[in-house]
Structures are given as C-alpha cells and as structure tokens.
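Quick look at the format.
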Amino acid sequence: MIVTPTNKSATRLEGLHLFHADMSNCSMRVRMTLEEKDLPWTSHHLDLRKKEAVTPEYFGIHPKGLVPALVHDGVVHIESNEIIEYLDETFPDPPLQPEAEEERQEMRKWLRTATEIHVPAVKTLIYTRKIAKVLRKNEAEDARYRSLQRDPELLAFHAATTSGNGLPKEKVEKAEETLLRLFDKAEAELARHEWLVGDRFSLADISWVPLHFTLTGVDFPFDRYPHVSAWADTIRKRPSFQEGILRWCAKF
C-alpha cells in the first residue's frame, strides 16, 4: 500500500529506507526479505519502549504510526506483507514466490491471513501476555497517542490495553483459538512438504516465521506442532533470520 506522506522529508529519501522496530514481527518479515535479496538499505530504528513512533514526524510518514514503513526513492509503502511482495516483484532475484500460479495464490492467502489476524489475534495475545507491561504509557504519552491516532480499530485496542483492566477474557481466548486453528493448518501443510507452500521457501514462510518467534516468547504451545517447530528451526539457520531478526531482537 502506497501512502502520500505529510512529512515531506520522506519524499526526498533515495534508495531503500526502512522505518522499523526491533521487537516488531511485522518489521522482522521486511528485514528478512531485504536480507534474502541482499539489498542495501538504510535503517531508521524506532524504539517502541521510548515511544519513538508516537510523534507527529513519524505519523507524517505512516498515518497509523505503525512499523514498518518502507520508503523507496521517496515513495512510502506500508503494510508489511504488501511490502515484502513489492520487494520481491521489484527485485526478483532471488525469487521468493512459487512459479505455479495455484501455489502463488496459496502463498498470498497466507500473507492475507497474517495481515487479517494481526490485531485481533497476534497483537491481542502478545500484548496481554507481555508487551502491555513493556510499552505502558503514562498520562502524557497516552494523550499524545490519542491526539495523533485516527484509526478506530487501533484507538479501541489502545483504550482496552491502557485501561488497567486489560483486554476482555473472551477476546484473549478467541485470539488463542484463532492461532491454534491456523497453526493446525500450518502443521498439516508442513507434514506434507518442506515449506508452507510446496517445496520452495517463499514469502509465506517469511511472513509466518516471525509470528512463531514472537509467540514462542509468550509461551504459545508450539510443542503440539512438531512439524512447525522443525520448520522454524530450519529457518533460524538462514542468514536472513540471523540478520533480520536475531541481530535486532535476540530474544523476544
């Protein structure tokens, strides 16, 4: 997704510039893709603990104040799964999409699903179990966020996580049920072949392995998924995982 920034300094950037955060699973998949492609890129790291993304300057680049945002020759791209697909199409060597159209469509389903469940499932579980304590806002920080954020879903999520009561139990339970169902599907696919889509490492794997990494950090029961665990262990050995994830976030 391309957006027109109100912070015009972004339009003057040449080459590949990534605004990202160490602990962000969405940032992880973009960093991995850049490393798989061996592309030179300029890092603009935002420390979420210090609320460095909650500024008018950054909201002027990403209208929701989320990470990552990729700026390529002055054009701003947001939504991590769309960014990694854009990178693969713009820099096709080495290819990270299946050759067969049917498998390519299956790959895109994995990408779309990861996007759709980000707030209601992944973010809900991770915030409840860990991140809400790490990223707690004081009164002034809370007011600043509300003054900048315009997205209703994110405002509602923020209100619930900063209320002191946490997210409703039924929402947290639904988040875990959703993730269990999807990793059941992943387990079935990986029992049949090496990667999430056929026998070729693809953007689907890059999209989902950061979820495994971050959810492992909040005690998601991956012991019930031996094929998923073996798949993740294999990906951990890739230089793109070492550079794109562990270099920035050694442990979630």
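Next, a different chain entirely:
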Amino acid sequence: MGAVDDVIALYADRGGEHHGELIDQRSHAVQCADLARSEGAPDHLVLAALLHDIGHLVATAGCGARTDLAVDDDRHEAVGARWIAPRFGSAVALPVALHVTAKRYRCRIDPAYAAGLSPASVQTLLAQGGPLDDSAALRFEAHPGSAEALLLRRWDEAAKDPLLPAGSIERFLPELGRLEVTATER
C-alpha cells in the first residue's frame, strides 16, 4: 500500500469518530480541505487541511475515539506531522505541526477568535497549554511557517458544520497523488 491508500484506509476505518465535535473526523477533514481549495490554496495547503488531524487517527489507531478532551495525551499535531512528512513532504507537514500553536497564538492576540471556539476546541486549548505567552507569541510570529499555519487554523475552526453533507476523501485524490512521496524519493 502507498501513502494515498494509507490515507483512504485510515479515514475508512476511523473517520467516523467525533473527538468532541458535532461532526466526525472525515467530514471535518473534507470541509477543511474544501475551504482551502475554494480559496485557491496550493496543493500542499489543501492536503495540510485534509490531513491536519490525522495524528488523532494514527496516534490512537485501534483505541477508538478520544473521550477526555481535557488531556492532550496524543499531541496529534506532532504525530500527524511525523506521519505526513515521509509520505507527502515537509511542505504539507509543517502547517500541520504548527496548527495547534496557531490556535494558541490566535487566542493570545484575538479575544473574538477565542470567544468563537467550539466547546471541544476550548477544552483542547486548555489541555494544550492555553494561549501563548508573549515570548512564545513572538517566536511563533517569526517562524517561517506561521502564515500558512494561521490559514490552516482559520479553515480548521470553520470546518465544523454538521449541516453540510459528508464528503468523500477520494475527492482529493488529485492532490494526494501529486504530492505523494514515492519510495525512490524517500
């Protein structure tokens, strides 16, 4: 099996989990990637949007949905980025690695953003360390991947609409196929 097959299999097996939100992981991933695609994002950001929470699925494979959102025991952003990088490259992995820090940053600088978080996102924010302090916020601003991580974060929060029909991961086969790292490239 290749990387694209791995993605399809993970979402087929575990995409129905909710992880505290009103929509399941598959619908959230597709909505997020649809938002990126609709804004004309490049392929690597569309894939980052699609795969940003895949760390939940690979970190707890076989363990079922997380039920205690007050504990950030899987560090899904780091697990996901490590899983993504050899399969789809660092350009896809970097925004995924930074999307939790981007949430913490936005909560630090934008009280309206913090007030608009979903209840599950509020719980996970606290488990992830809360809003960044001043020095961490400055480090994030200086990071070369911060702008793309903030885009991903915006799509992430907007991609939680339970009234949208569930989409198919397979709709993103073009981007998945274009960015899949082949065995000879590894």
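Residues 108 and 131 are 5 Å apart (CA to CA).

See the schema section for token definitions.
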